Automatic annotation (TrEMBL), chain A:
<dbReference type="InterPro" id="IPR039425">
    <property type="entry name" value="RNA_pol_sigma-70-like"/>
</dbReference>
<dbReference type="InterPro" id="IPR013325">
    <property type="entry name" value="RNA_pol_sigma_r2"/>
</dbReference>
<comment type="similarity">
    <text>Belongs to the sigma-70 factor family. ECF subfamily.</text>
</comment>
<dbReference type="InterPro" id="IPR000838">
    <property type="entry name" value="RNA_pol_sigma70_ECF_CS"/>
</dbReference>
<dbReference type="InterPro" id="IPR013249">
    <property type="entry name" value="RNA_pol_sigma70_r4_t2"/>
</dbReference>
<keyword id="KW-0238">DNA-binding</keyword>
<dbReference type="GO" id="GO:0006352">
    <property type="term" value="P:DNA-templated transcription initiation"/>
</dbReference>
<protein>
    <recommendedName>
        <fullName>RNA polymerase sigma factor</fullName>
    </recommendedName>
</protein>
<dbReference type="InterPro" id="IPR014284">
    <property type="entry name" value="RNA_pol_sigma-70_dom"/>
</dbReference>
UniProtKB/TrEMBL annotation, chain B:
<keyword id="KW-0812">Transmembrane</keyword>
<keyword id="KW-0472">Membrane</keyword>
<feature type="transmembrane region" description="Helical">
    <location>
        <begin position="63"/>
        <end position="80"/>
    </location>
</feature>
<protein>
    <submittedName>
        <fullName>Uncharacterized protein</fullName>
    </submittedName>
</protein>
<feature type="transmembrane region" description="Helical">
    <location>
        <begin position="109"/>
        <end position="128"/>
    </location>
</feature>
<keyword id="KW-1133">Transmembrane helix</keyword>
């Protein structure tokens, strides 16, 4: 595992060491791909956009001023490329209604129920729930929780205002809980049905 | 403060992090890195072998110099050819021009039919080959530059 900073490798690339770019790709490929696939929801296209992101970043590397993190810069490219694709496709996600009965008790109940599930099963359910959010919501949840970007960084990546991001994030969390609750309900029904 | 007022259920929703992280990262295909690096190397090769702008073998200044020198050589040749028994004003007469044209005319030469055919076919060959090659080069270079 290479522990050198991103800037160290960027300097090496700019000095002519192309292979140093492989380290940066390895470092961020899964992060970028995760963000893209949650927006475009297609493996081949997500890989293509992720590849284009890295190629575009390489070609523009001399212009990277280091004002933001290299990862944020990559996310910005990937996010914009994904948006371009979605605009071209005019894709619309099925809207998810927020459950108005979502109380703190139910949320706790959902969380406890999910802890009892097998790791693999739990991961799949959460992944599927994220994919049922709109592309925008899925990207915000991904950037905020998976990539651990703060609101300011997300704002620079997406071009949205911090207050807008906060509101959208809150709604996304609510929707996600609504979706997880529906899984939780169906999960509870299955053992009963089996018992019958 | 604003969020707390508008959304009273903020606290429990904030606790989504652990649950959301469970999904983990999606993995790229195993050859992803190789494919990106291949593309990067191709781009780098294009960048280093960029088409150089066309620079003529002889620049405009050189052509002007050659033109001036040639003009003076011809001028000197004409003046010396004119001779002493004629004035420099009326030396440009038809007879003189005809005499001068004789200098450039070839002696009687009857080429073989085979030679004529060969030259004709050679001209035909070049007149086809040049546009075809031009189109091919244009297409290739346009394709390479569009990758950028």
């Amino acid at each position: 595992m290479d522990h050198q900073s991103d800037q160290y490798h960027i300097d090496a690339i700019l000095a002519g060491d192309i292979d140093a770019y492989a380290i940066l790709i390895e470092r961020y490929q899964n992060f970028i791909y995760t963000l893209v696939i949650r927006m475009v929801r297609n493996h081949e296209i997500a890989e293509e956009i992720a590849q284009d992101t890295f190629i575009k970043a390489y070609l523009s590397l001399a212009g990277f001023e280091g004002k933001s993190k290299f990862s944020s810069w990559l996310y910005t490219i990937a996010y914009r490329k994904s948006l371009d694709y979605l605009k071209a496709k005019k894709r619309q996600a099925t809207p998810v209604d927020i459950d108005s009965d979502l109380t703190a008790h139910i949320i706790e109940d959902v969380k406890n129920a999910f802890q009892l599930l097998e790791d693999k099963e739990r991961k799949e359910i959460i992944k599927n729930a994220i994919l049922k959010l709109s592309e925008m919501e899925a990207s915000l949840i991904t950037l905020f929780y998976f990539e651990e970007k703060d609101i300011k960084e997300i704002s620079s990546i997406t071009g949205m205002s911090p207050s807008n991001i906060k509101v959208k994030l809150h709604r996304s969390r609510k929707k996600l809980y609504t979706l997880l609750k529906s899984y939780h309900v169906s999960e509870n029904r299955i053992p009963n049905e089996r018992a019958i | 403060m604003f969020l707390k007022t508008v959304y009273p259920m903020k606290e429990p929703f904030d606790d989504l992090e652990t649950l959301a992280k469970e999904a983990g990262l999606s993995q790229v295909s195993p050859n992803f890195l190789v494919q990106v690096m291949d593309s990067v190397r191709k781009e780098e090769a294009i960048k280093t072998n960029e088409i150089q702008p066309y620079t003529p073998l002889l620049t405009a200044k050189k052509w002007i110099a050659i033109g001036v020198i040639t003009f003076f050589i011809i001028l000197v040749a004409i003046i010396t050819e004119v001779g002493s028994n004629e004035t420099t004003i009326n030396f440009i007469s038809m007879t003189k021009i005809k005499n001068m044209m004789f200098l450039f005319s070839l002696p009687d030469f009857v080429p073989y039919q085979t030679t004529v055919y060969s030259i004709s076919f050679l001209i035909l060959y070049f007149s086809i080959q040049v546009p075809v090659l031009k189109r091919r080069f244009d297409r290739e270079f346009t394709a390479n530059t569009s990758l950028k």
